[in-house]
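Protocol step 4 of 5: obtain the predicted structure for the target chain.
Materials: sequence only (see below). No template structures provided, no constraints applied. The aim of this step is simply to have a reference model before the mutagenesis design in step 5. Sequence pasted as it appears in the construct record:
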Amino acid sequence: MVVSLQQPKMNWNWPEMDAEPVYVVCLGASTPVGRCAWSSAAAVRAGITGFGQHPYMVDTAGEPMRVARAPWLDIGLTGADRFEALMLPAIDQALEPILARPQEDLNIAIALGLPAPRPGLPEELQKELTRRCARKYHGTFGAAASFAAGHAGGLIALDAATRKLAMGELDACVVAGVDSYIQPETLEWLEACDQLHGAGPLNNAWGFIPGEAAGSVLLMRGAAIRRLQLDPLAQVLGVGTGFEPRRIKTETVCIGEGLTETFRIALANLPDGARVTDVYCDMNGEPYRADEYGFTCLRTKEAFDTASDFIAPADCWGDVAAASGPLHVGLAIISGAKSYANGPYAFVWASSEGGERGAALLSVKRTN
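Step 4 output (structure tokens):
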């Protein structure tokens, strides 16, 4: 059966608790600090950065632009080819449990989180990456969807996939996100918008380091996991999406209303008396993101152990935009598997410049 993954409407109520449980079974990643999810998580845990000078781009102060790029990719690899080179290895890793069982008849889909339109993006990137996935994984996926929503895109894709799985309309779904900020036109645009981090007199010390990466997670519903006798890494307890009308690059002040609503939806299934202990987010040094989170924390503080104690891996692999959600899910899960999570409940969130907001609550498997 082919199931269409449509763009989810914002602010739906999460499925009832008696819906099919949804689990994360496998992870994949390719980042400036690692070529798989586990090596990338180890680098973030150790505080290793992938920052360096762009080979030829200079800022308005005459200094080389600082970026976080995948060191194994040639700088001459551009356009959709670069996105593909980041994305497909991450998907390959997440698909390992499926590819190891080719005889199994599973209803599988793929949902992609992709960048929102901006200068420097390849033409028709959504269609091109979907086409390349179909070509490489011919016959594997019965449905595909893409969500060009920037930072929150991967979590919006996670929301759509989890709903289909919870309703039993899919057995499994790969949720992947990919982005790359290092194209010359994109870097020039970031600097013109006063978002490029730099120390020169004409640059913004509160900007961000442009990065590039891909992340992926394999989701499966409980019945399929039991059938394949797999050992899940985490359970997705809730996903929230929302929209913030008071956005960056507008003459408004964001007080976190959209993110607050998104948090509340995702946190609705947090067990009574429990608190979130681990938070992963896409804060990148820009003040408006910190302000938005601060207002949101004030309204939802009862759900968190210490909301101010968060991990923002942009300080290691740069701002990776649409790849953020799946990568942060991976970091949260690996922290449990490696015994450095503070507790069993982890939370990830992301904010897009276009106003889209996404968040997810996870119950991670912890080792003793």
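Step 4 remarks: The chain has two domains: 22-228, 234-364. The first helix runs from residue 37 to 46.
Proceed to step 5.
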